[in-house]
Every structure is written in C-alpha cells, then in structure tokens.
# Entry
Amino acid sequence: MHLLYTRVYNLDLLIDLQLKLFDHTIAPTLTYGSEIWGYESVDLLENVHNNFLRNIAKDKKITPIYM
# Structure
C-alpha cells in the first residue's frame, strides 16, 4: 500500500487510474485464497478499500463513508 501511495503521489495520477491500480495490485493480494477461507472477513477488506479511497480523495478519517 505504501508503495502504491508513493507512486500515486509522485506521478500525480488521475483518480480513475489510481482506482485501477488498486484493483489490479492490492485487491488480488487481499482476496487471495478467499474461495478457501470464505468471505467472513469482508469488513477487513472493506476497511482497506475505504482507507485507500479516503487517502486518494484527501478526506479526513472522521468523514462518513457515505460521503
């Protein structure tokens, strides 16, 4: 994640490209083996994704998710 954040800020990428990078680099790592262990820990995956979205949108941690 840190490397992705570094690349995103150094290259000043558009938001759609940032999301595509997340979907192609971080999401497969998080969901690896999910067919075996199931989707019981989906909240953890959602937290990682929401934190990434907040970071690229430069929102504060106290901003509600629905915003």
Observations:
- Residues 2-57 form one domain.
- The mean pLDDT is 84.
- The helical segments are 2-11, 15-31, 34-37, 42-57.
